[in-house]
Amino acid sequence: MVKKNNRRAGKAKPSHRARTAEEFNPDYTEIKNDLKRIGLLAGMFLAILIALSFVL
User: Fold this and answer.
1) Which residue, 7, 15, 28, 55, is most buried by CB atoms nearer than 10 A?
2) C-alpha span between 48 and 9 (Å, rounded)
């Protein structure tokens, strides 16, 4: 009969500590401006296409 090896499960240690709200504070102002610009251009192109559909 083979003897069973009892292994203890070790606790996984985190490699780094959890980030707090003070450490992670991204700035999205440039992204907001880019999204506004994309929306404005899309609206202008859509209006041009609608106008061209009546003319052509």
Assistant:
1) 28
2) 66
